[in-house]
Design a protein that fits this description.
Elements lengths: L1 H29 L6 H35 L17 H5 L1 E8 L2 E7 L4 E3 L7 H21 L12
Antiparallel strand pairs: 1-2, 2-3
Protein name: DUF4190 domain-containing protein
Keywords: Membrane, Transmembrane, Transmembrane helix
Length: 158
C-alpha cells in the first residue's frame, strides 16, 4: 500500500515546480505585453495544473503520514490512530484494516462487519480543489489549442 505513495510523492513534488516554471517561462520568454491570447491561456493552463498537482501532493503527504501512524504498532496503536474520530470511539474499536483510495484521495478504515469509512486524514478542501483546478487546467489547454495564433501585424509600407 505504501509503494504507490513512494512513487507518487517524489513525482508530485517535482511536477508543480516544473509546470509553474514552464508557464512562467513561456510568458517571460515573449514578455507580458507581447504575449498573445494563446500564450496567456497556455501559461494559465500550466499554472492551474501546477496548483492541482501541488494540492494533490499535499494530500498524498498527509495520507503517507496516516499510513505511517497506522502501520507503526506498539503502545497506543489499537485502534488505529488515523481511524480515531472524535465522538465515534465505538466505531474505531471495530477497525481491522485500512486502505488508501487515490481518487478521491482518502485514508479508508475497514471494520469487522465489512463496513468502510474515510478517516479525517485529508483536509476537506483538498479533493474539491483538485477537482476544480485539474479540469480547469485541461479546459484551458483545450482552449489554447482552439485559439488561432495571432499573426504579427505587417507594416503596410513594405
Amino acid at each position: 500500500m505504501a509503494f504507490p505513495l513512494l512513487l507518487l510523492i517524489p513525482a508530485g513534488l517535482a511536477v508543480p515546480f516544473a509546470l509553474a516554471g514552464h508557464g512562467l517561462g513561456t510568458l517571460g520568454r515573449v514578455g507580458l505585453r507581447g504575449a498573445d491570447r494563446r500564450t496567456w491561456i497556455r501559461g494559465g493552463a500550466t499554472l492551474l495544473g501546477g496548483v492541482a498537482a501541488a494540492l494533490y501532493t499535499w494530500g498524498l503527504l498527509l495520507i503517507a503520514l496516516a499510513v505511517r501512524d497506522a502501520d507503526d504498532g506498539g503502545t497506543g496503536s489499537s485502534p488505529l490512530r488515523p481511524c480515531r474520530t472524535p465522538g465515534q470511539w465505538e466505531r474505531a474499536l471495530t477497525v481491522v484494516d485500512h486502505t488508501v483510495d487515490y481518487v478521491p484521495l482518502r485514508f479508508v478504515c475497514e471494520t469487522k462487519d465489512g463496513g468502510r469509512y474515510a478517516a479525517e486524514s485529508v483536509p476537506g478542501y483538498v479533493n474539491p480543489a483538485v477537482l476544480g483546478f485539474a479540469p480547469a487546467a485541461v479546459g484551458c489547454a483545450a482552449a489554447a489549442a482552439l485559439v488561432p495564433k495571432d499573426r504579427p501585424e505587417r507594416d503596410p509600407a513594405v
